[in-house]
Design a protein that fits this description.
This protein is mainly alpha-helical and 118 residues long. It contains five helices and no strands. The radius of gyration is 14 Å and the shape is globular.
Length: 118
């Protein structure tokens, strides 16, 4: 998960008719793995770096490298759900911070639901 913010090691050739840069988005296979890792972290006993890792994943997934849309709202939502499942004070604080700057409507709603549960 620490490597999710890095660019691709081998750039892909985009298609001129695609409205986004394929190198700025997560690969579909990698996004499924990142979502699974986020959910798995929420099931493990909390460690001091768990909240930091999940927030970093959510922030990287919401990055607008490809233009107007986030890199992967689904991965960001998995990180947010995992933070809500942790249910500790640090997770709530980070969710409140995320709620102040997130502009993607679906992700913002997911944060609001997570805060309502905590």
């Amino acid at each position: 998960m620490e490597l999710a913010h890095l660019d691709r090691t081998f750039p892909l050739l985009g298609h001129p008719h695609l409205p986004f840069d394929v190198n700025a988005c997560f690969d579909p296979y990698n996004s499924h793995v990142l979502r699974g890792l986020a959910w798995m972290l929420s099931l493990l006993p909390p460690r001091p770096d768990t909240v930091h890792a999940l927030v970093g994943l959510a922030e990287t997934s919401l990055d607008h490298r490809s233009g107007d849309a986030p890199r992967s709202p689904q991965v960001a939502e998995a990180g947010i759900v995992a933070l809500a499942l942790l249910g500790n004070r640090a997770a709530r604080t980070e969710l409140e911070t995320l709620s102040r700057w997130v502009t993607h409507k679906g992700t913002s709603r997911r944060i609001d639901k997570a805060l309502a549960v905590l």
